[in-house]
Design a protein that fits this description.
alpha+beta, globular, 9 helices, NADH Oxidase
Length: 217
């Protein structure tokens, strides 16, 4: 699909057809697109919990009660749902894991290049941790880059998607033991195919005019 057509036609799906499932090969393609999402200094501060079964989706729906009950059906009727998690800190061990992967991927011509990458990443982490004092926000910003990548890729593939911030974070974090893993839930995304009952599919898109959002120099 054309990129501009995708941008103009994809939307946050409000109701899913529970009988329609994303073909396995196509879904695995989406996960690979997600894995290759960009992040500042390739920090990749994320982890993705993928719910494919009804039982797994029920576990996520446990965090969609009370004020968030309106989102439960989106998860339960979706083909797949993904919890986007963000690291709660960046440890020295994790930085070395990234560096080792860079080396395995053939990114360093010599030890000087490797040390340069080590120093750059460490410098960014320390800058956000100690000077700006917003390391968690910086990490979560990277997770949202991955969210945008997935939403657009799904649109290109003709797959509907719904990003959701309306959920009980404490319940989700506890249900999946995220704190013990150094993670927290940031956003949930359901994927699948829209139901005929989805009112949002019939509404026109609404965006601010060019002159409001662009300053051309």
């Amino acid at each position: 699909m054309d990129t501009l057509v995708t941008a103009k036609t994809r939307y946050a799906t409000k109701a899913y057809d529970a009988e329609k499932k994303i073909p396995k090969q196509q879904f695995e393609k989406l996960l690979e697109v997600l894995r290759f999402s960009p992040s500042s200094v390739n920090i990749q501060p994320w982890h993705f919990i993928v719910a494919e079964t009804d039982a797994a989706k029920q576990r996520i729906a446990a965090g969609l009660t009370g004020n968030y009950i309106y989102n439960a059906a989106k998860v339960l009727n979706s083909s797949h749902t993904i919890i986007f998690c963000t690291r709660t800190d960046i440890s020295t061990e994790y930085l070395e894991q990234l560096l080792q992967q860079d080396e395995l991927s053939g990114r360093f011509k010599d030890e000087t290049a490797k040390q340069g990458q080590r120093d750059t990443r460490q410098g960014y982490v320390e800058f956000y941790r100690n000077e700006l004092k917003n390391l968690p926000a910086w990490m979560e910003n990277q997770t949202y880059l991955a969210l945008g990548q997935l939403l657009f890729a799904a649109g290109l593939e003709g797959i509907d998607a719904t990003p959701m911030e309306g959920f009980d974070r404490n319940t989700i974090n506890q249900e999946f033991g995220l704190a013990e893993k150094g993670l927290k839930a940031s956003v949930i995304v359901s994927l699948g195919y829209r139901s005929e009952a989805d009112f949002n599919a019939k509404l026109p898109k609404s965006r601010l005019a060019d002159e409001v959002i662009f300053t051309r120099l």
